[in-house]
Amino acid sequence: MRAFAQSIVETVRHPLLILDLDLRVSSANRPFFQTFQVKPEETEGRLVFDLGEGQWDIASLRELLQRVADRNHPFEEVEVRHQFPRIGLKVMLLSGRAIFHEDRTPMILLAIEDVTERRQAQAEQRLLNARLEAMVRQRTAQLESSNKEMEAFCYSVSHDLRAPLRAIDGFSQELLHNYSHCLDETGQHYLRRVRAASQRMAELIDDLLQLSRLSRGEMRRQRVDLSGLAAAVVAELTRRDPDRQVEVVIEPNLAAWGDPNLLRVVLENLLENAWKFTSKKEQAHIAFRMAEKPIAESQATESQATGSQKAEGQAAFLVRDNGAGFDMRYVDKLFGAFQRLHKETEYPGTGIGLATVQRILHRHGGRVWAEGTLNQGATFYFTLPEGADT
Amino acid sequence: MSRKVILLVEDNRDDEELALIAFQKSNLANEVVVVRDGEEALDYLFATGPYASRNPEVLPQVVLLDLKLPKIDGLEVLQRIRGEPRLRRLPVVILTSSREEQDLMESYDLGANSYVRKPVDFADFVEAVRNLQLYWLVLNEPPPQLENGP
Fold first, then answer.
1. Are A95 and A111 in contact (CB under 8 A)?
2. Is A199 left (phi over 0), alpha (psi -120 to 50) or beta?
């Protein structure tokens, strides 16, 4: 039976000591000899505290072992840090309990788990985490301050750039009204051009500000009735332009998950574009419906790569018209701010609408891409998180 | 009869001149007093500093207040006006380039009577000034203590 117990002790990979109640070593396993660099002959039969030139003479261990020997109080995983003369600093988890020898002699089993490396790794991890957190704090502060700068910049743009424009327009108009007798037709024409340019610049400033506001503001997330929004947008377009012949087909019950104000801006821009670019068609057709087209197929024409997004949980929609369309060679320019594919004189606009659409959809985790044929029409596809009814 | 004085608080000389043209065009005979920063506006209203000899009981019919002003900005001027019992009911119209929502909300929170954004188009600006003048000087019933003009 002794061989049986001994073989168990030998099999365990942690250092183990078996002591008698006088705290003399009865036996030790190989991991003990290896870890603490002592030989069997200088171990067995000796007081544990005398081992290896007294390197186990640790006050806390003395107390723990004495309690097991005297009062049968076991201890478990007590962490002891000790500087060993031969092997340096060790952090150990010590467990001790009374056991009985086959001949019923009470003994003490002392199990030693060397956790020095684990503790070192943990300390390094903590240091690393602390550094990371400090870095995150610093970056956040930087971001917040650059956000503030951005806001101050936008405020300044909004306020200060407008004032000179007002002066240009105002004084030009006063010249036209009160001093037209001093100006010939060409001179008056130039003044009208000055006024038109100042108003155009005012529009550009407004659009630019709107674009920057879209990326700054908070976003709500709720179920949005896209069909209802689209119908409202079309009703407004019809009211503004009652003479147009436009057939608009909106698929009912389309919904998505997002910010209602922002998604309204998306539909406004897409439907207004469709409305505008069909203005030269005798019978204009505009459709807003679910896109049956698989998303992966159209990735090649996407305006800007947004990573390999899965279509799961995303619904795809399209806005299609039979208007002026565009040349697919320029599809990459479609979504850039202030990029235009048509002459200002043919179709007015600042060229910021689709950049706005793209920014909003990206903020929602969606995508937008387009297909078109010159003079035959355009289709704008976009994806949004699904607005499930449940 | 009270003289219908408009106090225009405006630091931009172009905007000042344009506003004066707009007032002229609306054909309503008002005296327009122009002050060019927040401090001067408060001096006028409180009859202090360069305006110490002014009778502080005579108040303008309406104050047109720009927000971005040197020294003391428009919102602070508004706050000081509303903090003075004598001036608490004085009609103050914010007339500014800013279309930031925050400015709009703060102005109303501090007790502005109205908020008008200066349009870039001069024709629109003239129209806005004309409406302002019509409303505040002709249609609006001023608070009682303002009728005690000289």
1. yes
2. alpha
Q: Which residue has the tokens 């030790």?
A: A28
Average pLDDT, consecutive stretches of 10 residues, N- to C-terminus, chain A (390 residues) = 68 88 88 85 84 80 87 88 83 89 84 90 93 91 82 74 88 90 91 89 81 75 94 93 91 92 92 93 93 55 41 83 90 79 75 87 91 92 77
Distance between CA B91 and CA B97 in Å, rounded? 20
DSSP A137-153: HHHHHHHHHHHHHHHHH
Q: Which residues of A touch B123 (CB under 8 A)?
A: 173
Contact A272, A237 (CB under 8 A): yes
Q: How far apart are the first and last CA of chain A?
A: 68
Residue in chain B closest to A196 (alpha carbons) equals: B121
pTM over 0.90: no
Nearest to A318 by CA among A276, A360, A372: A372
What is d(CA A164, CA A214) in angstroms, rounded to the nearest whole number? 26
Nearest to B65 by CA among B28, B4, B106, B24: B106
CB contact under 8 A, B15 and A198: no
**How many Cβ atoms from other residues are within 10 Å of residue B1's Cβ?**
6
Cβ atoms within 10 Å, residue B108: 13
A313 φψ region: left (φ > 0), alpha (ψ -120 to 50), beta (else): left
Task: Report CA B134 to chain centroid distance, whole Å.
Answer: 14
User: Cβ of B125 and A166 within 8 Å?
Assistant: yes
Asked if A166 and B122 come within 8 Å (Cβ–Cβ), the reply is yes
In DSSP notation, A341-390 reads SS-TTTS---S-HHHHHHHHHHHTT--EEEEEETTTEEEEEEEEEB----
What does the pLDDT read at residue A225?
Answer: 95
Rounded to an integer, what distance in angstroms lies between the CA atom of residue A218 and that of residue A147? 13
pLDDT tens digit sequence for B56-104: 888 998 999 998 888 888 999 999 999 999 999 899 999 888 777 788 8
- Write out pLDDT tens, residues B30-49: 789 999 999 999 999 999 99
Would you state the pLDDT for residue A304? 41
Scanning the structure block, which residue is given the tokens 């743009």?
Answer: A157
Strands (DSSP E) along chain A, which ranges? 16-20, 25-28, 75-84, 88-100, 106-114, 222-225, 246-250, 255-258, 284-290, 314-321, 368-373, 377-385
CB contacts, 8 Å: A166 with chain B: 14-15, 18, 97, 118-120, 122, 125
Mutate to test the interface with B, among A151, A169, A171 (most CBs of B within 10 A): A169
- Give how far A341 is from chain B: nearest CA, Å: 27
